[in-house]
Amino acid sequence: MDWSLSDDTASVVPLLAAFDAAAREGHITHAADRLGVPQSSVSRRIKSLEQVLGVPLFQQVGRGVALTTAGRELHERTESIIRELDEAITTVRSHADPDSGVVRFGFPLTLGPVSVPSLLAEFHRSAPRIRLHLVQAHGQALAQLVREGRLDLAVMIPPPDDLPATILGHQRLLLHVADTHRLAHRKRVDLGELSDEHFIASPPSYHIRKELEKCCAEAGFDPYIAFEISEFDTIRALVAQGLGIALLPTSETATTGVTTLRVTGIADRAIGLAIGTRHPSPAVNRLHTHITAWTHRLSTP
Prior knowledge:
- Pfam families: HTH_1 (PF00126), LysR_substrate (PF03466).
- This is LysR family transcriptional regulator.
- The chain has 3 domains: 7-93, Winged helix-like DNA-binding domain superfamily/Winged helix DNA-binding domain (Arc Repressor Mutant, subunit A), CATH 1.10.10.10; 99-170 and 270-298, 3-Layer(aba) Sandwich (D-Maltodextrin-Binding Protein, domain 2); 173-266, D-Maltodextrin-Binding Protein, domain 2 (3-Layer(aba) Sandwich).
- The chain is α/β, with parallel strands linked by helices and 301 residues long.
- The chain has helices spanning 7-12, 16-25, 28-35, 39-53, 69-96, 115-126, 139-147, 207-218, 232-240, 282-292, 295-298; strands at residues 58-61, 64-67, 101-108, 130-137, 153-156, 165-171, 173-178, 188-190, 198-201, 224-228, 246-249, 258-264, 269-275.
- The strands form 4 sheets. A 5-stranded mixed beta sheet has the order 4-3-5-13-6. A 4-stranded mixed beta sheet has the order 8-12-7-11.
- It is built from 11 helices and 13 strands.
- Helix 2 (16-25) packs across helix 4.
């Protein structure tokens, strides 16, 4: 006997996109913006879904919304289904015209001012009808977006073990000091020589911060973090003012007043290109191929 949707399921399916967007955003207005529809449409679809199911799915929390227990169970059971449906539709549509489509691409905060715009400009010249939705964030955030299916591709330094990734090259972390610092005349320094220094570092969730703390612990000391900030250009500016030293990759743009040194005891980090879909569209495959051809430009010598 042929299987068919129940009447309830058939009525629920068109409403799940609004439910999923509101569950992810935690805000009806933000969900409407994400879907490109009026806020009233999202609210109406969620109310219709609640009426069909007979349970409230959201509760008001401040200016936003939060899932109820029933809403959380529904989202846990449907988010992967909605993601796979979206991937299937995107892939099938893209086959009609492999030179068009949308690719959601993420890249880390340590890349961007020069290499990534140049890479994307060249890609756009070869595939002008492929649209790119770009996200720049630190590695942990990018990895989560890939896992959730909200990014198709992401460059991560280093790539996490649980995501399929192509290694593009390696990035070297260097010690950044002010030109007036006692070590500025050196070409290389051992990590153990820095135990009395003040460090300027990124937040604890960033891989560079974790790498700094791990390597310092192996060298026998805990780094003293005098300043903590997420923006790498600001870290370099603070270093230039003599407020501390920092462990960072080489900047793609010149920073006045800062000298960089090699550090013994700090390993290079792998640059990986992770893919977030089991069935990549031709557009995703095309950008993946283009990026891997840029391996030598993404790697820091």
